[in-house]
């Protein structure tokens, strides 16, 4: 809710340090302890400042350099630029003089209120980073500018209303005086009251100098020249290494049979048992891995014993056949009644297999526990979490303020690094050999066999169509494990269908699961958009025309449809053997995608030649980066839709590395990906997960148009494509 501007001067010195937006803002001078802190009552904030020797959001030096602190993870999505850029926009900072560093992992100071009104978190997931921090960073930047303007006004003894700012320079036009932000440092004073700026008092979109412009990403040069530090790069004096043998039967408990033999190996320091694994600490990684290979372990059975992922679909179909409903996810109108008056009823089952995150950098962390076991330093690439200290205080039994997390760049996250299991494992090992630092590394085999996957699921779609071709009812039954992991993305609010029902029917197999890019949207949007085209195909209606009618009450969604039809030349003739398919997705932002494919009818291989997307994401902070996000999302979508799958036989994960877990290869990427960003003045929405879930439906719909056959089981492997062609 927007605040009344006449109440905007409501924050005094003390309130400012713990402002209503969840920000604690300080401006430091010349790299020294911040001179503007006057709130001795706020013990925790002062302790953290003394501990980190940094300001909360910005440090301003006399030479004009600004260090702006980024509270989010940087895993290639660009938050290291977008969030500081928003702050700099409202501060009127000279971007050429800005450096960006990770903020301390302290949610009281740096957490975003965008997740929940009552809880501030530092959690880089769900495409919510820019969305949740946008107002926070704008307000913080405006408050910093306010302090600078008031300090200049007092220094010159002129009314603050007569001052303007631009690119780190404050100007008094009447006298012609100018002073840079750096030159102003010795004269900084903290006003008695700081505005709690309303949105109306912040810049208008038309006045943005940085937001929406082409601005190079801050971390790219370091990634290019090799100086960027990921957690895997961290080396500490006297560091030792840890590995775990977890097996590949999830939930199984180990009994080590040859402990004395392992302890006799040169370089092995300690064996550490876990409920689900055997840990080894050694002087170097090679010795740790050698010892791991020699472990003789008796593994117990578990819930996953006997589970076969391919065979379980028969059970899923039986669950979908039940008359009793599952957990209602959403309901509108009376779907049952729409069936009674339907001219035709369409029903189809859509399936998807388990999918692995396949992040490039192996899971790892470095932790050093003090000799008295009361403090810990953590170096990790994490997507953070509900617990900013990543579970380490609980493992060590110490207060959270005694744990200092040094966030590093991430070599891929996709949801996997929003878990802290690997950090907690490292803390267990580090406690055993304190004060020596321990680096824990998961091998690729570890992560594939004992990973956390996007769950497999079955979606049964039933649609009721009236005599005039109108879709009057739409039912979506999701069968699978994981709640929101399988049931997100079933919303059809952008489609004008009067009667809708979406429900989840639970299964569980003891397999480790986790959010995977776009979560349930991938499988569910594939099912929804495929069914829309199946209806259009049977009714002999252009799928664009059908969607245009469905979006008549959703103008923003319709605008993305019309734009992608334009940029893809939807109705233009195609070379023989090619066809286009279309798919709409809402995942924060709204996007409609079109792909052009061909199929090798001898091998069953699908080739995606071109992809077009029209996107409405509200205010675009970094246009080039948004396009890069969409391009990456499309390629990750193609990879998962055409080839990626985890299969399980008798509870055992069958894949072990990239030799048998197939990813998209360079030769298979599209010839072109074209993205059109629709102009908007609305609050920014997420973009990292909008492209990926539109791929399955778009490819299946192009395949239907090209061959008249259905693809209903992801991934669309060559074997499944050939089977569909023969059907």
From TrEMBL:
Domain Aldehyde oxidase/xanthine dehydrogenase a/b hammerhead per the UniProt entry, residue ranges: 225-303
Domain of life, source organism: Bacteria
Record Pfam families: MoCoBD_1, MoCoBD_2
Transmembrane domains' residue ranges: none
PANTHER family for this protein: ALDEHYDE DEHYDROGENASE (PTHR47495:SF2)
InterPro entries tied to this protein: Ald_Oxase/Xan_DH_a/b (IPR000674), Ald_Oxase/Xan_DH_a/b_sf (IPR036856), AldOxase/xan_DH_MoCoBD1 (IPR008274), AldOxase/xan_DH_MoCoBD2 (IPR046867), AldOxase/xan_DH_Mopterin-bd_sf (IPR037165), N-heterocyclic_Hydroxylase (IPR052516), OxRdtase_Mopterin-bd_su_IorB (IPR012368)
Source organism per UniProt: Algoriphagus yeomjeoni
GO molecular function, a single term: oxidoreductase activity
Protein name per Swiss-Prot or TrEMBL: Isoquinoline 1-oxidoreductase beta subunit
